[in-house]
Amino acid sequence: MPNRPPNAERSFIMIKPDGVQRNLIGKIVGRFEDRGYKIVAMKMVHATTEHLEKHYADLKGKPFFPGLIKYMASGPVCAFVIQGLDAVKTGRAMLGATNPLASAVGTIRGDYCLVTGRNICHGSDAVESAEHEIALWFPEGVIEYEDTEHAWIYEN
Ligand code: GDP
Ligand code: MG
């Protein structure tokens, strides 16, 4: 797995079916753009249960697993990849805690939802899982393009 330079770290972010139905795509994507992250891949997907079971393979066996897969398969998701400094850890910080009630106000979950089982968005929890999730959701790869704002976001 290639180690990406710090300014080009990538994370997989997904607006879950409740976030899509509640018309929050623009607001959520906008937060990452506003922060300085580049969107290098994006698509709407109505995922199959098989695909979702792969995405959440580490949670298989948890009591909430069947409900989680049903929730995630209940409608389309908006999957995208952010690129930039500390994308994984800062992406998680921007999402908030898994339980929205424990999420700080100002985070996505802390501002837009109330319960763990309807927490509107996903973000990779480590660089390695990000690479794995990006490959799972974007087997076609991401888009490489010149970042014209780079010098206004980074020192070098
Ligand atoms: P995340 O990385 O913050 O999304 O949290 P996890 O990887 O631990 O869990 C994945 C997703 O499963 C969460 O975002 C929730 O949608 C769901 N989930 C986790 N724990 C629970 C739970 O105790 N109850 C329910 N209903 N869903 C849960
Ligand atoms: Mg997780």
From TrEMBL:
<dbReference type="Pfam" id="PF00334">
    <property type="entry name" value="NDK"/>
</dbReference>
<dbReference type="GO" id="GO:0005524">
    <property type="term" value="F:ATP binding"/>
</dbReference>
<feature type="domain" description="Nucleoside diphosphate kinase-like">
    <location>
        <begin position="8"/>
        <end position="145"/>
    </location>
</feature>
<dbReference type="InterPro" id="IPR001564">
    <property type="entry name" value="Nucleoside_diP_kinase"/>
</dbReference>
<dbReference type="GO" id="GO:0006228">
    <property type="term" value="P:UTP biosynthetic process"/>
</dbReference>
<dbReference type="GO" id="GO:0006241">
    <property type="term" value="P:CTP biosynthetic process"/>
</dbReference>
<comment type="similarity">
    <text>Belongs to the NDK family.</text>
</comment>
<keyword id="KW-0067">ATP-binding</keyword>
<dbReference type="InterPro" id="IPR034907">
    <property type="entry name" value="NDK-like_dom"/>
</dbReference>
<feature type="binding site">
    <location>
        <position position="92"/>
    </location>
    <ligand>
        <name>ATP</name>
    </ligand>
</feature>
<feature type="binding site">
    <location>
        <position position="98"/>
    </location>
    <ligand>
        <name>ATP</name>
    </ligand>
</feature>
<dbReference type="GO" id="GO:0006183">
    <property type="term" value="P:GTP biosynthetic process"/>
</dbReference>
<dbReference type="InterPro" id="IPR023005">
    <property type="entry name" value="Nucleoside_diP_kinase_AS"/>
</dbReference>
<keyword id="KW-0547">Nucleotide-binding</keyword>
<feature type="binding site">
    <location>
        <position position="109"/>
    </location>
    <ligand>
        <name>ATP</name>
    </ligand>
</feature>
<dbReference type="InterPro" id="IPR036850">
    <property type="entry name" value="NDK-like_dom_sf"/>
</dbReference>
<feature type="binding site">
    <location>
        <position position="16"/>
    </location>
    <ligand>
        <name>ATP</name>
    </ligand>
</feature>
<protein>
    <recommendedName>
        <fullName>Nucleoside diphosphate kinase</fullName>
        <ecNumber>2.7.4.6</ecNumber>
    </recommendedName>
</protein>
<dbReference type="GO" id="GO:0004550">
    <property type="term" value="F:nucleoside diphosphate kinase activity"/>
</dbReference>
<feature type="binding site">
    <location>
        <position position="64"/>
    </location>
    <ligand>
        <name>ATP</name>
    </ligand>
</feature>
<keyword id="KW-0808">Transferase</keyword>
<keyword id="KW-0418">Kinase</keyword>
<feature type="binding site">
    <location>
        <position position="119"/>
    </location>
    <ligand>
        <name>ATP</name>
    </ligand>
</feature>
<feature type="active site" description="Pros-phosphohistidine intermediate">
    <location>
        <position position="122"/>
    </location>
</feature>
